[in-house]
Description:
Blueprint: E1 10-11, H1 20-31, E2 34-40, E3 43-48, H2 51-59, E4 64-65, H3 72-75, H4 86-89, H5 100-115, H6 119-135, E5 142-144, H7 146-150, H8 153-161, H9 166-180, H10 186-206, H11 212-217, H12 225-238, H13 240-256, H14 258-266, H15 271-281, E6 288-293, E7 297-299, E8 302-304, E9 309-312, H16 314-317, H17 327-332, H18 347-364, E10 365-366, E11 369-370, E12 379-381, E13 386-388, E14 392-394, E15 397-398
Parallel strand pairs: 1-2, 3-9
Antiparallel strand pairs: 2-3, 4-6, 5-14, 6-9, 7-8, 10-15, 11-14, 12-13
Amino acid sequence: xxxxxxxxxxxxxxxxxxxxxxxxxxxxxxxxxxxxxxxxxxxxxxxxxxxxxxxxxxxxxxxxxxxxxxxxxxxxxxxxxxxxxxxxxxxxxxxxxxxxxxxxxxxxxxxxxxxxxxxxxxxxxxxxxxxxxxxxxxxxxxxxxxxxxxxxxxxxxxxxxxxxxxxxxxxxxxxxxxxxxxxxxxxxxxxxxxxxxxxxxxxxxxxxxxxxxxxxxxxxxxxxxxxxxxxxxxxxxxxxxxxxxxxxxxxxxxxxxxxxxxxxxxxxxxxxxxxxxxxxxxxxxxxxxxxxxxxxxxxxxxxxxxxxxxxxxxxxxxxxxxxxxxxxxxxxxxxxxxxxxxxxxxxxxxxxxxxxxxxxxxxxxxxxxxxxxxxxxxxxxxxxxxxxxxxxxxxxxxxxxxx
Length: 403
């Protein structure tokens, strides 16, 4: 075993700095399944890229916990209270930061809400929203399918599912984009988001309806309005960035990769193939925070100390030479949804939403094509993901959804 003190930490953002295949093949050659990484200056963690090692971290609850209370650097004050890591790694009264019975209690309302979704209705909702979004740029013959399309679809769709009217859904979109943008208006976005959801909860308490807000509000496992708001926040925000990235990357793949571009022109979209490939080689979240070691243990030939943070390297796991004998197997065995008790419960509505948004754009935008050289596409790089900044396209017109 090798202790982490023998490694110089690799800045985690560098794993997303370039095209993933070359990056992760190099990391596997140089480090193997476990990489000692830097989250921010002075704050380190393990990036777990091994397929079997990830299964261990996500399913062995006696060895690894989800609650940040077990994070050594947080408990010891190494991580400053104003750290950007706070948004994704600090304690919060949410299912995503809890373990055991508390996790099951807080997760149950979210699962119940997701299971109540009618997927036929969801497809209709998303298709109508996508058609309306395209009408805003139809006459121009060009658009940015990230800023003007993909970035709006998830939140507007969820806004309707939780029972907001169109004006409120657009306010939800504005507040969520401000909050997740981490800019100067992030605090105001958080305030507006909490105010909107709080008012909506009060309305639904007085006037229940057939929406997922009522499902959450009436769930017996929630003890107060604060937990109701956190559950709705999880439904609104947790999958938003991932879905935006999934839609954007699938559209990019279908417009730039010759294996898919011919199918677009010929009307044989192959959307599901593109969605699965994106999950495998360019997952919406390439590095997922976090689990925390409950005791000293050995993993992937490395000594993991109690309190060490474990980052789930789901993109790196795709390149595990021990687990994937070929490309086809790689696409079937990705870990984009994670595993174990904290596996994403929203995979089915997420796929419905993403598939509908991608297929609708390719179906209605006539002669759609990338408006720039693929090499000129820009990506926003964070420690957790590598998402498209924009996807400029040109087209000759917008068709009818009934065609």
